[in-house]
Amino acid sequence: MKKWAKAILLTSVLTLVACTNEQDAAPTQKQTSTKQEQKATVSTNTEIPDKVQKPLKIALIMQMSIGTFSSQYIEGVKKQVEAFGGTVQVYNSDNDLAKMATNLDTAINAKVDGILIDHGRSEALKNGVEKALAANIPVVAFDNDLRLPGVTVIDQDDYSLAWKSLKTLAEDLNGTGEIAVLWVGGFAPMERRSTMIDAFYKRYPNIKEVARFGTASNNTALDTQTQVEALLKKYPKKGDLDAIFATWDEFAKGATKALEQAGRTDIKVYGIDLSNEDLQLIQKENSPWAATAATNPAEVGRIQTRFLYQKVAGEKTPDVYSLEPYLVKKDQLPSEVVTMDGLEKYIPGWGTSQAAYSPWMSKLEKEQK
């Protein structure tokens, strides 16, 4: 990480820790940058650029595809590419970085028109991405630590995601209690979320962490359920454990099911990420899942795709872009079932974004109908 990036991160963390006013603790520098970056994507060209008039072949290289968040993200990519008249080949690497690097090489050798990357690590992908750029294949990454000239990296603003959920947990506990953290290393967004967990304990010193664990597998939710069931045996009495902070919705799903089966209504779950399946769990009567901070995974896929098309068209795109996350609390939701598509009725600001949407894209979409 460059020195200036470290300085910005340190400043943001210290601001969060030092402020007693929670509004002041929000990462305002991050939000300001996001607005500036969004302005940088505005185009006044209404004519479809020559390079995107043909159907484009897009490759989506994924570190793994687990759970409904990933499925909705993939669906967002596919629908946006199809709306532009293109096709998508999805490469699932089964959480194997070496396989992910091989998949990237395969896509480059297939001479695709653009590459989308989902997660992964720079040390495994840097050479392949440089090869793609040398072949004039544009690259846009999501939740990745790549920092290469010409590559746009988007994220969900993981610092804000973690803080929104943790802050809600602290307020519900009145600043005092024992919690468990579900977390796993090896992923760029998880490392950023861990930074905010460290800041959280400095801001709320009377909240103590009694356990931290988590694994990413082909059945993360079920594995987490088993792990939380074991945790509950260590803390069988009310007051022994007050809440669980889950840094991934697959963790939150497993924890929620374990608490439900054990009848532990005294322990609440605070998560990150959201899907239709998650919403059903949160909306259940007496559900322990109290709140989650999230962006719309389908919208992540759509925005990432639009940035890629802007690159193919020769338009300027930012080096980094953060989507605005939202806090979704159980008590904000109706008794009837609500899906991601209808969430904007209950969560102010939730919904589709015009980020990375150039005027010519509307015309391109109309020509495909």
From TrEMBL:
Q: What is its main location?
A: other
Q: Which residues form the signal peptide?
A: 1-25
Keywords, in A-Z order: Signal
**Positions of the UniProt region annotated as Disordered:** 24-47
Q: Which Pfam families match?
A: Peripla_BP_4
Q: What spans are recorded as compositionally biased (Low complexity)?
A: 28-41
Q: Which PROSITE patterns match?
A: PROKAR_LIPOPROTEIN (PS51257)
Protein name, as recorded: Sugar ABC transporter substrate-binding protein
Q: Give the species.
A: Ectobacillus antri
Q: What is the lineage of its organism?
A: Bacteria, Bacillati, Bacillota, Bacilli, Bacillales
